[in-house]
Amino acid sequence: MFARLKVFFANQKIKWFGRFFYYLLILLLLFFMYGFNDASAGAYIYNDF
C-alpha cells in the first residue's frame, strides 16, 4: 500500500497539480483577506514609505 502511494505521489502530473492548487489556494486566501476592504479599512501599508 505504501509503495503504491509513493508511486502515485512521484508522478510529475500529480506534483504539478498539487503545487498548482497549493499556490492557487494561497492567492485566493490573500485575495479574500485583503481584497474586500471598504473605506474604513485603513490606509494602504506602503503609503508611508
From TrEMBL:
Domain of life, per lineage: Bacteria
Transmembrane region positions? 20-46
UniProt keyword Membrane present: yes
Keywords, ordered alphabetically: Membrane, Transmembrane, Transmembrane helix
What is any Pfam family matched here? DltX
Q: What is this protein called?
A: Teichoic acid D-Ala incorporation-associated protein DltX
